[in-house]
């Protein structure tokens, strides 16, 4: 069980694995609702007032500004003076008709799908492997967190140098086994692959940790029973591990989807979306439009960004539904 | 049981585990190796696998040029931690224990808030800060960076504080403590683990932030280390030992946190499972 546990009389502590599973929403916790005294309602909202104000000022308002940006024709001057004319959905039209739209869509889908599949498969394989008992298992598993904890600029610059065409270690290794140099970051046919590789490396630890905590909640008696029935390792994985892990897998994949969809740093730092837009996704395109040029196109940039918000929210709501269903189950 | 056979098998697994970890951490090793490589060996083909002719020149450059950036990042990181904890711990308490009407909606909004791409928030903040004159300011960046951590923090605090036994709070109430006193004297001290987890992540995320930094404080007097590295790569793609030395130094908080607080990290990943 990965619940917060209280030893009798002691303080609540995280359990052995140190895991608190996804935070229960107050609405979901079985509410033995007696009507609360009015004074307590007041107290509750006094405690919530700062964060509510914060939510309004620093989430809702920027989002509103962003929506507003996407519906007006902004120039640098009007941006400062705030008198940009309202143009309705013109910016969205511009974006849809832009020749960069199709490729950006394809890159976003490919980037997200490929990263997701590899991160999940590698993460699951590692989680199953580290779930076994052997010396150093816990220590090594902890070390696997390193790529996830590093600042993205660090990972991205390290990969940039490793993938350097002339002096990179990757091409040196390929050369050693007789494969010619690959222009990882400078050739349009490889740039997307390069950023995908780097992003998979960063995402594996997350999948490993979450799936590992899922494995821990599968009762070992099931494995013993399966073993008694003569099931081999692969059969046990297929008939016990994988089905019982399905809820955790669903959450992992959905969260991975939402996060991968908005990956920006890695791509921008490694390739700036290039060469020739070959690794441009919606996230980098939006930034490119808004901040990447001398003459910023805030309106279209915000429009692209809002498309991304819609996509993220759609999958986010799916995530919430799945989570809620599981909480009820 | 066949223990001899068993031991042989676990030794084999340990070896495989070590090999996999080495493979996974190779880029980290490579960053260290390059940071110690001499300029003249940088373009060698094939590259040296060990820094046998190591130099600390890269690190000297870091200390000479990047210290102000590191200092700024430290200030921003600590500011973000303080703001995040101050905002979310009381909120977590209210959502977990006082159960206000409408609290469920608020909790839902925090889940949704985590789904919004950072780049979108950055654009909105840019538009607002431009008007308020907050661009290129440290407080402005602290506020923006805190948006990465606050929703996650509220959820962690709520989850953690729901586990505090109600009897304890009721006892305090009997003794005449109001909600604020109960929070200060009982709930907060008991939530130390949650405070640590939240602080770690708030610090780490603000320390690593690149999107807000490059949109909101780019070119200003106070830039964080992520921009320090970014400019360094842009202006100078020769001295990779210095770039990688900066990267190593910028990774230190992550390394320290991993060594000192590994179980909080694991808790944070599985709990909120949020990273921007």
TrEMBL record, chain A:
Protein's UniProt name: Multiple sugar transport system permease protein
Keywords: Cell membrane, Membrane, Sugar transport, Transmembrane, Transmembrane helix, Transport
ABC transmembrane type-1 domain segment(s): 105-319
Family: Belongs to the binding-protein-dependent transport system permease family.
UniProt xrefs under InterPro entries: MetI-like (IPR000515), MetI-like_sf (IPR035906)
PROSITE patterns per UniProt: ABC_TM1
Topology in the lipid bilayer: Multi-pass membrane protein
From TrEMBL, chain B:
Compartments where found: Cell membrane
Membrane topology summary: Multi-pass membrane protein
Transmembrane regions listed in the UniProt entry: 12-32, 69-96, 108-129, 141-164, 185-207, 240-261
Coiled coil: none
Xref: InterPro entries: BP-dep_ABC_trans_perm (IPR050901), MetI-like (IPR000515), MetI-like_sf (IPR035906)
A GO term from the CC aspect: plasma membrane
The ABC transmembrane type-1 domain, residue ranges: 70-261
Major localisation: membrane
Family designation: Belongs to the binding-protein-dependent transport system permease family.
UniProt protein name: Multiple sugar transport system permease protein
